[in-house]
């Protein structure tokens, strides 16, 4: 994610020549034992290489700090950076839990700095259109929503016991990694979650220890150790508008690669989005003039075009697709606008806190086997 942030900032003026600020990559901090930091500096043009993030957050030439390390350093880096008067771009989950995220919020508010959070799926042009369709009433009153974030990146039982599987370092499992996105997305498109009930499961309870610097998809080589957090989450929820929903997420779903998306069903239609076909939206609407209108409300595919979201700054025509990295350029644009104007634009640290509170409620519900209100 550090590389993704660097690419996004480097590309900002290519897509947004009228951006109010021009980023300059001043420094990168990494304590990796190999030459990863030097390779990053050479590839992205950073002017200074640092081994301690504390030097970075107090650096006189730095105005913005990107927090893209493992979850367990997010709170410490973000709070220190805010206290030093730096703006923030924090990857999700901002903290390992809602309490840590609230500490970041408090530091940001006390310092009066801007803080963006990496909820990049909000920035998809087709998702922008879906949100507008729901808000416009085109599909009528929302009855129920389904959101799924399924992946197979931890399906291999021989994958290493990396920091992601240990609560001291991650805070949670698939909750923080994928459900944080799903919880934000359903609330962004439809509305706030009011209450929920949750089941969690760990399907691979032990893994072999990771080699130093190994990622969670690499093979383990050491002794077996316990997986301390969940592989799978299934939730029923009720939104504040009275509609119902289902949320399902897994990191061990064999055959599922980035199967992220949602379905919103209303009294007059429905809308579906799938990340794997990011630039498409499936829409169904009741046509009162048709014979048996409810039986003939078939889905049609609508393609994102220049009038949807930020697509026009990347591609000139309808269904010229954009990709994952482009979503981060949109985040960068919204962040620099926030910094220039002093008014938050896009997903902020407050949105990260809202999502973190949902995750905490999910843990409570699962542990205590009951409905929990937010």
From TrEMBL:
Keywords for this protein: Oxidoreductase
Coiled-coil boundaries: none
Superkingdom per UniProt: Bacteria
An example molecular function term from Gene Ontology annotations: nucleotide binding
Location of the Gfo/Idh/MocA-like oxidoreductase N-terminal domain: 2-118
Keyword Oxidoreductase recorded: yes
Location of the GFO/IDH/MocA-like oxidoreductase domain: 128-271
Keyword NADP: no
Family annotation (InterPro entries): Gfo/Idh/MocA-like_OxRdtase_N, Gfo/Idh/MocA_oxidrdct_glycsds, GFO_IDH_MocA-like_dom, NAD(P)-bd_dom_sf
UniProt xrefs under PANTHER family: BCDNA.GH03377
Record's protein name: Gfo/Idh/MocA family oxidoreductase
Organism for this UniProt entry: Aeromicrobium endophyticum
Lineage summary: Bacteria, Bacillati, Actinomycetota, Actinomycetes, Propionibacteriales
């Amino acid at each position: 994610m550090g590389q993704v942030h660097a690419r996004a900032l480097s590309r900002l003026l290519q897509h947004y020549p009228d951006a109010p600020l021009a980023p300059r990559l001043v420094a990168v901090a990494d304590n990796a034992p190999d030459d990863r930091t030097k390779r990053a500096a050479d590839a992205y043009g950073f002017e200074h290489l640092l081994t301690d993030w504390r030097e970075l957050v107090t650096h006189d030439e730095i105005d913005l700090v990107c927090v893209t390390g493992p979850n367990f350093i997010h709170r410490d880096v973000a709070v220190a950076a805010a206290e030093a008067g730096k703006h923030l771009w924090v990857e999700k989950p901002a903290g390992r839990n809602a309490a840590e995220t609230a500490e970041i919020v408090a530091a940001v508010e006390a310092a009066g700095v801007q803080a963006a959070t990496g909820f990049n799926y909000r920035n998809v042009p087709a998702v922008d259109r879906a949100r507008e369709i729901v808000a416009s009433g085109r599909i009528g009153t929302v009855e129920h929503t389904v959101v799924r974030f399924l992946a197979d990146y931890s399906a291999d039982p021989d994958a290493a016991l990396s920091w992601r599987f240990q609560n001291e370092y991650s805070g949670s499992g698939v909750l923080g990694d994928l459900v944080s996105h799903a919880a934000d997305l359903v609330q962004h498109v439809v509305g706030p979650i009011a209450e929920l009930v949750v089941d969690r499961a760990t399907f691979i309870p032990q893994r072999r220890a990771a080699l130093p610097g190994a990622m969670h998809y690499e093979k383990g080589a050491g002794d077996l150790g316990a997986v301390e957090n969940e592989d799978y989450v299934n939730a029923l929820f009720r939104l504040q508008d009275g509609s119902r929903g289902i949320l399902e997420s897994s990191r061990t779903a064999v055959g599922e690669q980035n199967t992220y998306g949602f379905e919103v069903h209303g009294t007059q239609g429905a809308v579906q989005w799938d990340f794997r076909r990011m630039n498409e939206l499936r829409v169904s609407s009741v046509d009162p003039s048709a014979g048996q209108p409810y039986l003939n409300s078939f889905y049609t595919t609508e393609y994102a075009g220049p009038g949807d979201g930020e697509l026009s700054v990347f591609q000139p025509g309808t269904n010229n697709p954009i990709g994952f990295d482009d979503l981060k350029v949109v985040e960068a644009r919204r962040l620099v606008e926030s910094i220039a104007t002093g008014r938050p634009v896009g997903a902020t640290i407050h949105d990260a806190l809202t999502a973190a509170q949902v995750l905490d409620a999910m843990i409570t519900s699962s542990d205590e086997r009951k409905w929990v209100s937010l």
